[in-house]
User: What shape does this take?
Amino acid sequence: MAIALTESAEPPGQAPDLEPEISGRSPWALAGRRLWRNRIAMAALVLFLLIIAVSFAAPLYAHDIAKVNAFANNLSGTTIIHGHRVPLLQQGGGLLKLGETPIGPTWDISNYFLGADQQGRDVMARVLYGGRSSLEIGIGSAVFCCVIATVIALIAGYFGGIIDAALSRLMDIIWAFPVYLLAISISTVLLTTSNGLSIGPLHLVATSLWLPTLIIAFIYLPYVYRPIRGHVLSVSEKEFVQAGIAQGASDVRLIFSDILPNIVSVVIVLLPLMIATTILTESALSFLSIGVQPPNASWGTIISDGQDLLYTRPWVAIAPGIMIVLTVLALNVLGDGVRDALDPRAKLRADAVDRARALRHHGARVCDLLQDARHRPGQADRGSQPEPADPGRDTPPVRSRPPVPRPVRPDDEEDLHQP
Amino acid sequence: MIPIPAKSDTPDIPGRPTHDIGVARRDCPPARSGGRKALRRLGAATLTAGALVAAGCGSSGSPSPGSSSAAAGHTGGTYTILANSAFGVADLAQNYTLEEWQLAIDTHDGLVQFKRVGGTAGTQIVPDLAASIPTPTAGGKTYVFHIRKGIKFSNGQVMKPSDFVTTFERQFTVPGPTTFYSGIVGASKCGNAAKTGKCDLSQGVVADDTNYTLTIHLTAADPEFLDKLALPFAYVVPASTSMKLTGNNVPPGTGPYLWQSYNPNKEAVLVRNKYFHVWNAEAQPAGYPDKIVEKYGQTVSDEVTAVQNGQADEVFDGDVIPADRLNELNGAQYAKQVHVNPLTADWYFAFNTKQPPFNNLKARQAANFAADRNAYVKIGGGPSLAVPTCQVLPPNFPGYKPYCPYTAGSDTTKWTGPDLAKAKALVKASGTAGMKVVVNTDIPDKALGEQMVSDLNKIGYKASLQALAGSIQYPFVQNSNNSKKWNIAWSAWYQDYPAPSDFLNVLLGCGSIHPGSDASPNIAAFCDKSIQAQMDKAEQLSVTDPTAANAIWAQVDHAMTDQAPWVDLYNPKQIDFLSSRVHGYQWNPQWYILIDQQWLSK
Assistant: This one.
């Protein structure tokens, strides 16, 4: 008691002033902190930024270091290697002297580091320029896709009814086509004819990077639209939205001030994964000569150029291939990190599913485990339970999700949360 | 001629766009004569000098075995060809590819035939199902053929003169891809034959099954008519053959082999025709292998590997061997298996002579002086596979006399280098400096287009590239409705048969301009009345005095070159790669490799 008396000896009325001040943290700050703590995701982010930096430094490299024009043929050109002037393309030897072979890598950063291609152009410079094109198209199309899909999803999900039905069916029509079939069809029409694309006063020629950007954004619209629309439907039923309606808030206000902020985290989670997907798509189309058109280069076109040199000059194809692998890997890892940061419960679900699958593989009772996962704190009573301090600490590494978000089923939508 | 349509547009692999001979002729729109790209594959090259170029290459002029040699102990075995893709519809009335023609000459016969030997003699027309080559009468408008008796189709049916009536009528009911036979009397009324399935050529092709004669009446003399009769379109099929397209079923023929099967997704198989006997070994000798198989679907690189390993005998000579595999073929161990032959073909850029800046002669000449043909040759596989040229007619062709006014230096018989100073002066004089220029190519040949962009930019134009899908580009540049969308367009042409008119008149004659049509082979839309008069004169003279006619053609060729409707780039060469067990290689200027005249080690 003495102790108690001592501790309570302070004058009444001063106690509240001594209580520590509790400052709230925004969901974004929490997410940022989680992301910052995820070392693998941060490493992926650094790698991605590095790739962006070197790619956008392509003109500097070409003009100031290699001193080459990466887009002009240089078939009759020469360079100096080990003090000897050699032609960039060397005629075949032997009896028949068939073919012309470009020089291989010199590993000299200022002099055809990765060698030349069949048109005598510096492969290193083209890989950097190609990265710029691939990243511009990849990021641009992913952003376009996410923005447009979000707007459509907001309209469809909020207004519902016939508007929702019409927009959703439109998306279903796009979705009905296999992605690459649709991309190849549109690209063939727009990029390999003389027409280009004309929309009102806007005319895009076939060589414009905008064309593949818009084509790729278009084909992935439904893949982004569907999960976002699910979120919009879910959020639209929340009490605060109903309260806004009761207070006479306008549709625009409700959509952009109440609903949009609550679904933007989903878009942010999707974005890096979409960028990875769109870069791959762009590379595939360019490899087929229906993506980036000459004289521009992209990683896909360079791989295509290198295809005929695989035996003698493999670096022409390998170098852009490595860049694609690193970029997509970085984006997928980063995307998973962002998802974990913004949606820790999704990670728990993913972990549970992974474990369940692993156990099923060994003959364990899958259903029980999944049931168990569904009843974890924070799952059944969303929002009311504290989330684990570090969900990843006692769970195995998260498996990368497929780059293309799968369609959201109704039961999935039940599990969606707000940041 | 044979146009060279698209290489596989699909994985538009920018393969060496060079000498890839062969493109499905079926892809070519009807043209007066063959086409350009079709020949990429086809190789109806007329190389009069057809011999091999590279030392150590097999002999193209080795003796033809004919029937007697075929029996001399070399017969037997299965000869396997690997081709990247099949040749499309197999009906001889419509197929226009070297790929099928190389097989069709072993299964079918025409009234006449190109002599089945290697070397320059291979351009000679010899009688095949006709007992002799007739002299045309009625001013060159009537041919009376005496047909050989005792010849049977591979189904056992006796071949009769009336079978030819069906054969020619099918050219209009199927219909065929060319207008080679539109000069036959009655053909003009068969315009709708493709829809109605009926065409009556009874007035133009008169068969007498009793006396075994066949009389063909033409509306006008055609000095190239016998050449056209020697093409597979005119190879006889039974009168009972459907008048409609037979698709992948090849009607019976009279040659030493018959089509056992053809599956475009898998293979074509030819086996011996038990009804065949040799009637003229110069036209249709017996073959050596018992079976000829052409398999589809591998990449060309894999084809090379298979032939290196002895798993197949030939990389189809229309398939372009990737640049990085050529190095291997340079090795001494393959010296006897690799054969290189020059083709009578042109790779060129045609100017749009109806639009500025190239409606101006000086601008066209400037581009010719600026073109770095050495660079184009490198794109074409290097000097061993392409030879720079400035003129329309290819070397070793009737009427060819070396001429190159667009070169550095004073020697105007060969190209030695670009002359940029002269080019810039001409651009300045033309008043076209700074103009925008659209350079059109197909996607597989975009490297050539990029080089042309580079060449034109060097002399003051603002050039940009327009690369179209291979299947689109050729009809696109032919159609005058697109004339304002391009200024200079890549194209290539392989001979259909050895006649200068097949290049000069077909590609640059006033009569080859068909406004609004996708089949207007004069891409440049170039028409010079005085040169046309010379060509008409040469055509007439070629019926009676080919030598004098060729002299005129030489003048026409030079006059055309001076007018610069094209930038001629180079004349390509072709590679044949065979397995070590193949012997008796012969290269015929018309059909290229003579497949069935080779025998296999046992």
Remarks:
- Chain B touches chain A through 56 residues (CB under 8 Å).
- Residues 1-69 of chain B have pLDDT under 50 and may be disordered.
- Residues 29 and 519 of chain B are 5 Å apart (CA to CA).
- The two ends of chain B are 39 Å apart (CA to CA).
